[in-house]
Every structure is written in C-alpha cells, then in structure tokens.
C-alpha cells in the first residue's frame, strides 16, 4: 500500500514535469518564431514612406504577440516598434509586417486579397494553405524552424528581401 501511494505520488510529479516541459517547449518555439520575425524585418527593405513607427501586426496568435513583447523596446528601420493585435486583414494595410496565426488559416485567401499589393511582409506557419498567400512561411524541418520565401510576391509588394536571407531559406520561389 505504501509503495503504491509513493508510486502514484512519483507518477504525479513526473506528469507535472512533463506538462511543464511541454509548456516550456511551446514558449520557446514562440520566442524563436518572434526572433525570426524580427530578423526577417532586419533583412527586408520597404518603400521609403513606411511611417513614424514600425508596425508588426498579429492576427490569430496571442502567443506570438506575447513573445514579440521582448523586442518591443528595440527599433527596426530606425523606428520604434509598435505591436498590434488585429482582427481583420483590412487593418493590416498600415502594418509593415503581418503574422497570421493558425486560427486564421481558413481565411488566407480573403486575407491575401484584403492586403493586396500593399508593402506588408506577410508571415505564417505552413499548414495546408496556398503558400502563395504569404511571403514567408515558417516550416518545421528535422525538429527545427526553417522558412520558405515567396520572393515574387515580395517584389510585387515593393519589398526587397536581402540575398543573405534568401540564401538561408529552404525554398525561394
């Protein structure tokens, strides 16, 4: 009886540790994706008239928005960073970057049409949508985050992605 009580207690502690480890992994993945977003912006050039602040908008991912708080005190393109949680792609037209969370993937065609050819760097995690609807898609490869770049779409939006970033992409089209 004493052994089974100790075993149950030990099992409970182990399960708790596994749950915490999983939360840490997810938090770490979000922090890594936020760092990717920051670096994508560093290696992308926008048209000259992007405004007084660098706006990073997020649709459908509070976790990424929270992870991006770490970079809020930095500057991009000599401008302070502004983070916006938006609910409609029509709000993205004033943003320099738009991260589209998984919950918004069913609406990717609509989002792409609403953003149109505005100079908005669209980024999302790859998940069965048409990759032509975003400029950069984050993908998992060998348990690591990597990315593909739709450079044709970037050029249509007057965005210039650095050759350094293009060389790091798994696929450029």
**Helicity, in percent?**
25-40%
Strand order of the largest sheet: 3-4-2-5-6-7-8-10
Q: Topology as H/E string?
A: HEEHEEEHEEEHEHE
- Structural category is alpha/beta
> Number of DSSP strands?
10
Shape: globular
Q: Please tell me the overall pLDDT.
A: 85
The count of helical stretches stands at 5
| Radius of gyration over all CA atoms, rounded | 19 Å
Which architecture per CATH? 3-Layer(aba) Sandwich
CATH class: Alpha Beta
What's the number of structural domains? 1
Helices and strands in order, then pairings?
Blueprint: H1 2-42, E1 44-45, E2 54-59, H2 62-68, E3 75-76, E4 79-85, E5 97-100, H3 108-115, E6 121-125, E7 136-141, E8 144-149, H4 151-156, E9 160-161, H5 163-168, E10 171-172
Parallel strand pairs: 2-4, 2-5, 5-6, 6-7, 8-10
Antiparallel strand pairs: 1-9, 3-4, 7-8
Helix pairs in contact: 1-2
Walk me through this protein's architecture:
By secondary structure, this protein is α/β, with parallel strands linked by helices. The protein contains five helices and ten strands, in the order H-E-E-H-E-E-E-H-E-E-E-H-E-H-E. It has a single domain, classed as Rossmann fold (3-Layer(aba) Sandwich). It has an eight-stranded mixed beta sheet, with helices on one face. Strands 1-9 form a two-stranded antiparallel ribbon. Helix 1 packs across helix 2. The radius of gyration is 19 Å and the shape is globular.
């Amino acid at each position: 009886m004493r052994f089974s009580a100790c075993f149950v207690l030990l099992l409970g502690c182990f399960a708790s540790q596994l749950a915490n480890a999983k939360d840490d992994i997810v938090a770490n993945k979000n922090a890594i994706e936020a760092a990717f977003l920051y670096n994508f912006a560093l290696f992308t050039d926008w048209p000259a008239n992007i405004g007084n602040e660098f706006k990073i908008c997020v649709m459908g991912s509070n976790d990424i928005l929270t992870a991006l708080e770490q970079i809020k005190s930095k500057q991009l393109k000599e401008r302070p960073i502004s983070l916006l949680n938006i609910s409609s792609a029509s709000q993205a037209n004033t943003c320099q970057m738009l991260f589209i969370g998984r919950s918004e993937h069913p609406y990717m065609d609509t989002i792409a049409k609403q953003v149109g050819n505005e100079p908005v760097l669209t980024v999302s995690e790859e998940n069965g949508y048409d990759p032509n609807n975003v400029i950069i898609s984050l993908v998992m490869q060998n348990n690591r985050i990597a990315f593909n770049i739709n450079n044709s779409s970037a050029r249509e939006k007057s965005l210039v992605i650095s050759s350094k970033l293009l060389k790091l992409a798994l696929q450029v089209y």
